[in-house]
Amino acid sequence: MDISIVVPIYNEEESIPALHESITAALAGSGLEYELILVDDGSSDGSFPLLREIAGKDPRVRVIRFRRNFGQTAAMAAGFNAAFVNRKLPSRIANGIISRLTGVHLHDYGCTLKAYRREVLDGVNLYGEMHRFVPALASQIGARVAEVPVRHHPRRHGTSKYGISRTTRVILDLMTVKFLLSYSTKPIQLFGRWGIYTLEAGFLCGALTVYMKLFEHTSMNRNPLLILTAFLLFTGVQFIVLGLLGELNARTYYEAQGKPIYSIREKINFGER
Questions:
Q1: Helices assigned H by DSSP within the chain
Q2: For the chain, what is the mean pLDDT?
């Protein structure tokens, strides 16, 4: 998307067709990919039905309708949010977070125009919506990842299926990928560490509770630190048990299927003929 045009509209039924025709004519020969965002600021005439009709014929037109008249400033703000937040900002944030956490720095993880060696994909299994993380999963087994510029072809039909609503799913998938990359063969290192930290905090709160009882004569049954102590100790034990269960599952996963915890690129035996 090269240009986003935002136009606030309020009771402009007669001017809307000419507006659309003028903008279309001005950009027809420019070669630019654009979108026209028309914000109906609570019009009381026939502006919105006309806008909806234009949007149905021109896929580059997007219409936002307010429940009532909020003013030109609000209409411009809504148009800016639709132009920048829903598409560009979530994509940049997501790509930055994924690159930082996985260690594989790419400009666009969502682009599915990728090329792989067969031996690399043999070691990558995809579940759910993990397709966008294939480069990160491939790097786990030692694959080298490179990025080259490609020609971008603008969409000619339909509308984009990506928006800010997909951010939650990307974050959840990223948590899974981060765990697989860093702790799939040693889950106790993750859960056990947090368990120890939590137990230490619990013992500290317990010691502070006893100190307040002995030296400040604070009643323990009225001290919230006592409840916090019990909660932290119980949570710490749960973290450690979860790590141990993860270790059992990891061993079952690798040993039952005969999966190695390493990846071999090639073997050279000079003694063989």
A1: 16-28, 47-57, 72-80, 88-102, 118-121, 134-140, 167-183, 188-215, 224-256
A2: 82
